[in-house]
Amino acid sequence: MSEPETPDRATLAERARQSFATRFGRPATTVVAAPGRVNLIGDHTDYEEGLALPMAIDRSVVIAAAPRETPGDTACRIHSVAMNETCVVRRDDLVNTPPPAGRGWKRYVAGVLALAPDAGMSAPAFDAWIESTVPPDAGLSSSAALEVAVATLVESLVGRTLPPLEKARWCQRAEHVYAGVPCGLMDQIASAASTAGHAMLLDCRTLAMTPIPLPAREVAVLLADTGERRDLTSSAYAERRQACRDAATHLGVATLRDAERVDLDRVADVLPPAVLRRACHVIGENDRVRACAAALRCGHWSDAGRLMNESHDSLRDDFEVSSAALDAIVAAARSIGSGGGVHGARMTGAGMGGCVVILAAPEAASGVMRRLTRIASSVLVVRPEDGAGPVCGG
Ligand code: ADP
Ligand code: MG
I need a labelling partner for 356 at 20 to 30 A (CA). Which of 43, 128, 171, 325 fits? Predict the structure, then answer.
């Protein structure tokens, strides 16, 4: 399937505004958007206080909304087009109520609303219509986009904005407590704080964010989706995290951020080979992110691409979170080679499914899309987008 034109934020906002008016019988008073993200390099580093290089993409969750008009009303009616469902969240119910069980999308919305007072925000009851161009469960962080969009809506209804880092923490807590996903902070930060035209070098220890320019006339980012939705299972994820903890303990460091590759020689006799390989990935990945950010800053696209290739090989062989479908797309992209305009390709996100990210020359993008369409379920060009905010006129 080749990619049909994806509506931009303004188009999506207009659609949401119209649908809101039809569904709720009055005009929306605000429209907000929050983007999904792709991680260019630096996977499985966040929980060891490492480095990552995410980029917000031009695919967003957009919400049109208006306060309820009945005084004393506490019920929020929220419709998601993607889920074809309206959920009702009563603000009274959120107080002292345990997080909703199960896997439904309401958990993400209810979580952000429930924790709003902790963030110093108290929104009036509202009705909302959610449009989205972030495919769910594809590793592009639709959950963070949804959470950050809801938090941005609350800001808009309250008339006060938080620093992006505070907003990201609020959303991360919602995902931890209400969705039961012990995620790092990268997804929410990328969605809340990115700058158009730039990726973001993120230090997961200090939370320093450094914009890295990605000029559209010089470099393109493509995503090829395997169509596999077999995300890393919680047991596999827990095993990887525990291996990193074991390695750090044996190395006598707080986190693997403080370790270097040579340090692993010291513990090679005491740690199981699989644990050593997990640690080797994390330590090497931090070095690769640093080098990749430096290469991108200088416009050394092929160096950046080579580091992305090395990152994939490490995730496949040492961290063992790739899949046959991811490997096949990476191999196909690499076979096009630098002569065909491909600088590098790697799996992105937690792994075992989801997408491959490709760094390419802009003039080669359509040819690369055509080639990869044969084996990927979809291929799209993504552009570095601004973080969350009100949509113009919204
Ligand atoms: P990812 O964040 O990689 O897309 P997750 O499993 O973390 O995958 O989050 C996906 C979940 O987020 C969906 O299953 C759904 O519950 C929720 N979600 C994402 N987009 C929307 C949307 N447009 N409307 C409602 N819920 C959504
Ligand atoms: Mg998610």
Answer: 171
Q: Choose the final residue of a domain: 139, 168, 186.
A: 186
Ligand 1 neighbour 141 (Cβ under 6 A): yes
Whether 337 maps to a domain, the answer reads yes
Instruction: Please name the residue whose Cα sits nearest to atom 27 of ligand 1.
Output: 105
Query: Which ligand has an atom closest to residue 59 CA?
Result: 1
Residue 106 CA to ligand 2 centre (angstroms): 14
Count of residues making up the chain = 394
User: Which sequence positions are flagged as catalytic?
Assistant: 187
Mind listing the pLDDT tens digit of every residue in the chain (394 residues)?
A: 444 578 999 999 999 999 999 999 999 999 999 999 999 999 999 999 999 999 999 999 999 999 998 888 889 999 999 999 999 998 777 765 666 666 789 999 999 999 999 999 988 999 999 999 999 988 899 999 999 999 999 999 999 999 999 999 999 999 999 888 888 899 999 999 999 999 999 999 999 999 999 999 999 999 999 999 866 677 888 899 999 999 999 999 999 999 999 999 999 999 999 999 999 999 999 999 999 999 999 999 999 999 999 999 999 999 999 999 999 999 999 999 999 999 999 999 989 999 999 999 999 999 999 999 999 999 999 999 999 999 975 4
Q: Is the CB of 143 under 6 A from ligand 1?
A: yes
Answer yes or no: do 275 and 142 share one domain: no
DSSP string, 258-279: G--TTHHHHHTTTS-HHHHHHH
> Does ligand 1 lie within 6 Å of residue 136's CB atom?
yes
